[in-house]
Amino acid sequence: MTTVLAFGTFDLLHPGHLSYLKQAKEQGNRLVVIVATDSNVEKIKGKLPINDQEHRKELVKALKIVDDVFVGFEADMIKSVEKVNPDIVCLGYDQKPNDIELQKTFDEKGIKARIFRAKPFNEEQFKSSKIKKKVF
Questions:
Q1: DSSP string covering 53-84, please?
Q2: Per-residue pLDDT of the chain in tens (136 residues, 90 and over written 9)
Q3: Which of 43, 104, 109, 119 is catalytic?
């Protein structure tokens, strides 16, 4: 069984998120999703998400293609990778860090997962920051 791990905020779940998760699922048999903590979202994006981490987790959990979901670790995001021990880590086209930096971190920590970078899905229309500007 091939386990794929995907990360995200998943605030205001939209078709771009679904495309990302479908691409991740196509890489293996089991899809585990890490939902970012509210605090980490604020650190990375400069503001809190509209929906709290438990609400976002429940929305992702309701998706048929997702096999397991949990809220990530606060201080060390790599702990999520270590906990799941995936075969593949799927990142969205716009997620940081870059693949080389992440692979270096994996190598240093003895993580054997390979990195798969998902392709964008109509990013001009289905990017969370753009949707929020239209809605709010």
A1: HHHHHHHHHTSTT-SEEEE--SS-THHHHHHH
A2: 999 999 999 999 999 999 999 999 999 999 999 999 999 999 999 999 999 999 999 999 999 999 999 999 998 889 999 999 999 999 999 998 899 999 999 999 999 999 999 999 976 655 555 544 555 5
A3: 43
